[in-house]
Amino acid sequence: MEKSPEELYQERVKRVLDACTGKVPDRVPIMGPYELFVYNYAGVTIKEAMNDYALARRACHKFLDDFQPDADFGPVLAYPAPPMEFLGVKWFKWAGHGLGDNIMYQFMEGEYMKADEYDEFIYDPSHFMATKWLPRSFKALEGFAGFPPMRLMMWFGWTGLLTAFANPEVQQALQNAIEAGKQLSEWFASLGQYTQEIKQKGFPLAYGAFSWPPFDLIGDTLRGTRGIMSDMIRRPDKLLKALEIATQLCIEYGSAAAGADLPLTWIWMHKGSEGFMSDEQYKTFYWPFLKRAIEGLVERGCIVVIYCEGNDTPRLKYFVDVPKGKVVYHFATMDMAKAKEMLHGIAAISGNVPNRLLLTGSPDDVKAYCKWLIDTVGKDGGYIMDTSALLDEAKLENVKAMFEFTHEYGVYR
Amino acid sequence: MTKEKLVDAIANIRDQEALQLARQMLDAGVDPRIVLEAGREAMAIVGERHERKEYYLPELVVAGEILKEIAEMVKPKLRGKATVQAKPRGKVVIGTVEGDIHDIGKDIVAFMLEVNNYQVFNLGVDVPPSKFVEKIREVNPEIVGMSGFLTLAFDQMRLTVEAIKEAGLRNKVKIMIGGAPMDNDAAKYIGADAYGEDAAAAVKLANQWTGGN
Fold first, then answer.
1. Cβ under 8 Å to B: A residues 291-350
2. In degrees rounded to 5, what are phi and psi of residue A95?
3. Is the CB of A360 inside 8 Å of chain B's CB atoms?
4. Does pTM top 0.90 for this prediction?
5. Same domain assignment for residues A170 and A298
6. Percent of chain A at pLDDT above 90?
7. Does the ipTM surpass 0.85?
8. Can you give the residue range of the structural domain that contains B123?
9. How far from each other are the two terminal CA atoms of chain A, in whole angstroms?
10. Which residue in A247, A301, B92, B168 has its CB near the most CB atoms, within 10 A?
11. B58/A229 Cβ within 8 A
12. A240 touches chain B (CB under 8 A)
């Protein structure tokens, strides 16, 4: 008898949850955040997907129908071009805005917080974000530079402070924020619609929330790689204070996942990998804050997926120190056998099918790699099949091989 | 000797002390070329420690900052003095391939090659094959470095190597690749001579290719 979408939905949720929490599921789940590949497959450029939400949804449906992942991201990773265009995002290039029509968007690092602004950020992160970060990030919000400090409104503080709203530049920025809000709500409506549609087809949403390690919150969007690397040596005390705040922000960002059918908070990890910093630096600036963020999120009911994008083999000795059965480590470059040995019974593992193999290898190469992963890392559960990194260009037959092989060979008998 | 002290301060990334020493030396009338020489010596040590995995990005970045600040200090004092640049060990054309705008890793490689006495022509990001070819023709480098972070870089690098081949320049240059998704197999696919894991590896390859150690 054919299973109903409702049954399939429950089955998939259980499969993914079992794998995430270290139980043995009925089969190795396969899912992942994919980017360009989904749209390429549907014959849609990323530029079209970013501009036409209905088209993006259709492309994602096609991928879902044909590949049958156990959980799905949908069009969230395509990002909405119209509001970004309207706002004039300064730190991003995307298809039709500095990049060709079918090239994935890319982030332009810079010092969006200057080295001498740590104190301001630490004192009042919201005011810093409003009056410094927003104007530096969005052309249309430059007027926020004149936004008054809300912390000083009490008693008759408001009399002087509210006059800031008479400033035409502040008014323009507020008008622009209202317009951007309207445009963004269309995008969120599209995402919500998609989530409902796939649920009716029997597929759960793979994410409940996104977040970033405290170090990367400061390093990616505020100080930039060069900035934060320099700060580790030249202003370590200020960086450590800022990381305390970023830890709270990381938890705040990620908590929204709690209560979802798959309460997964995806933490995108960038700068903690091998090559960036020494072991000593990692255990001073990176891990303690990430660990506390993980614990905070778990306490709030989330399962945390740490999406490692580099080589993290040297960090395994830290990764074992997390709440049991509540963390999934996604690995790009990793000694997977060693990872399994060290993490089994503590945290689940996902990923590691090399994107290069999916682009340049053959279906047999892919199958052999997946077989090794299932046999080694999938042994006794706790593994989710996925690519090494977000999937863009790849050979169709190779991606098909990865899915078909996992669906068949990944069954626990 | 103060020069040794300065070398030591830079090599051990004591930024305040290094800048103070450099300032004192210049104020005391020490030949600014000696101050610059100290910077070069210190960077050789920094490079070695990076290769031995004692130093990582924070040290490389701060050493670079110290060097830059010292160079600023020295600049006005150098006026009228003949500076003899050591003959570069070799020339390197480097860039991030077309479609990709990631530059942090590539710039660190370029910087480490520079401090190891290579003349580096940094073409920036989103560099089309034709621009690589053009620059190779113009400056005749021994080495070409291609960087890429996205999956598209595999085929872009391959196309770039193709273009270099078509221009009849392939046997005149050694090609190295780098970037997060790259590895030795990628180098084979792309038709490059080697893959380098980090800046230290890039320097090592360059040294091998220019006949050193």
1. 309-310, 332
2. -55, 125
3. yes
4. yes
5. no
6. 98
7. yes
8. 90-209
9. 21
10. B92
11. yes
12. no
